[in-house]
Design goal:
Rossmann fold; 10 strands; 41% helix; Universal stress protein; UspA; Universal_stress_UspA; Rossmann-like_a/b/a_fold
Length: 281
């Protein structure tokens, strides 16, 4: 089973909405009995262009003071880092150098420009980081109780399943597979045939996952349609707290590269999203 061994890297932009990612990182640190490294990246003035010019050292010092104030009194061990430069490069380097097991990042949806900048950073980070990346969207009042695991039955999606098994009990998991129907064959008989085939493939996939041997299996849900659309609809209908996906797969969620599905889920999912690369650290 994939184990989360090592500190959690929290990417923070010092915004009020970033508190959601901080709260989730603290809950996970308690659950996994690990520490947090809180990293804020001060972008170069040429990249940022959103604030009046100030010396880098001054901006770094202010970020350090803000982080230390916000993190004061928490019951988990937290180390604060402030770096200057490209955010994705700095996050990758900090995660690798410190042996981090997970990167936690938030999204800024309320401010259009902030959403574009931070969204681009998160999507690039998901593609390039060696560690699983958790994108936090909701408030974190408690540990995760349920999760929806997107699967195309590839080894990439098996790694994603393994990762979430370290965070939640099997009873809280649902394995979700989306399938396409041929353009000229959308009748009920064809749909039922595809659904039956998908359900059989899901059962074989779970049976071939060693971490589930001798244990109850996750629930299985299959549906016809565009993967990111049916996934987000189902997550919304069932009030899923976490959506888990691999960053790439061999076949995609049938005809769609799972990496592009992951990008779409980060933007559209109504809940937090955990993206796991096939070769996790």
């Amino acid at each position: 089973m994939h184990t989360f061994s090592g500190p959690i890297l929290l990417a923070t932009d010092l915004s009020a909405r970033g508190d959601r990612a901080l709260d989730r990182a603290v809950l996970l640190a308690r659950q996994l009995k690990t520490s947090i490294i809180a990293l804020h990246v001060v972008e170069s003035q040429a990249r940022a262009m959103l604030t009046p010019p100030r010396p880098v050292a001054e901006r770094e010092a202010q970020a350090q003071r803000t982080l230390l104030r916000d993190l004061e009194g928490l019951d988990v061990q937290i180390r604060v880092l402030v770096k200057n430069g490209d955010p994705v490069r700095a996050l990758r380097q900090a995660a690798d150098e410190n042996g981090c097991c997970l990167i936690v990042a938030g999204v800024a949806r309320d401010e259009t420009l902030g959403r574009i900048l931070l969204g681009t950073t998160v999507e690039k980070l998901v593609r390039e980081a060696h560690q699983p990346v958790l994108v936090v969207k909701r408030r974190a009042p408690r540990p995760y109780r349920n999760a929806l695991v997107a699967s195309d039955f590839s080894e990439g999606s098996r790694h994603a399943l393994r990762a979430v098994l370290a965070l939640l009990p099997v009873s809280g998991l649902t394995l979700f597979h989306a399938f396409d129907l041929p353009g000229n064959r959308k009748d009920d008989i064809t749909a039922k045939g595809f659904q039956r085939t998908a359900e059989e493939a899901a059962a074989e996939f779970l049976e071939a996952t060693p971490e589930l041997h001798g244990r109850d299996k996750p629930r299985v849900q299959v549906a016809a349609g565009i993967p990111e659309r049916v996934l987000t609809d189902y997550a919304d209908q069932t009030n899923a707290e976490l959506l888990v996906t691999g960053s790439h797969g061999s076949t995609g969620l049938t005809r769609t590269a799972i990496g592009s599905v992951a990008d779409a889920l980060i933007e559209k999912a109504p809940c937090d999203v955990l993206v796991v690369r096939q070769q996790v650290r």
